[in-house]
Amino acid sequence: MLSMKKTVGAFLIMVSLMACSDKYQSLYNAAPNPQLEFNTDTLKIREKDYFNINQTNNGFLSLKCIAPNHQLNIQITDTSNGKVHVVYRGDTIRTYQPLLVAGDSTNVFCSCDTAGIYQVDFLITDLLGKTNQQPLIIKCLGNTKPIAILDIQLIDSSQTGNWIYSLDASRSVKPDGLIRSYHYSVNSQSFTTSQPIIHYTFHAPAVYHISLFITDDLDKNSDTIKQTITIL
């Protein structure tokens, strides 16, 4: 009698497990595959642009989970041999390291060591274990040379022996980054400023040779431009 009860109990447990398994399989089959979208099909970034996450949109990537019902897991793989870096909340995501995304979207910051075209694969997994892989093409461009432009204008000569000029480099160009400093030389006397417009006072009539080059946020210099003014 005891043996019969054990047999019946084991059978009921097996039936229950099979029912649970069938229910899970039905749920698994009915659930949509997880999907991931990016804010751009091809992410264009500048080489060695590691620190501009809060200053420009270079490297900004938005990941959007389509119709998420649960917390999702994302892993990345890339073909760059470590040249591409993906940062989430200040931490670099390693290859195959899981990134848990609570909600429908998240933002990461991408940078790259060397100019080139790379592919990064994002593998998304939901709580049911269903997966989907979404590739992203990253086009990393070389850092362009900034272009210095200088406008010089007399703004005040009302005081005897003082000629105040505006040295205006605000039209200088750096489309893929930021200008950090402006390097002037006036008759071989050099000085550097972070401001694009300064006022410079000349104290004697003479011919003055003024030169300027600028430096970008990756320490790349422009060509040096030169102008001459004559104060009589």
Please characterize this protein's 3D structure.
The chain has 232 residues and is mostly beta strands. Helices cover 12% and strands 48% of the residues. The chain has one helix and 17 strands. A five-stranded antiparallel β-sheet has the order 1-3-8-5-6, with no helix packed on it. The chain has a five-stranded mixed β-sheet with strand order 2-10-9-4-7, with no helix packed on it. β16 and β17 (225-231) form a beta hairpin. It is rod-shaped and about 95 Å long. Mean pLDDT is 83; it is low at 11-15.
Quick overview:
The chain has one helix at residues 2-30; strands spanning 35-38, 42-46, 60-66, 72-78, 84-88, 91-92, 99-101, 105-112, 116-125, 131-141, 151-156, 163-168, 179-186, 189-193, 197-202, 206-216, 225-231.
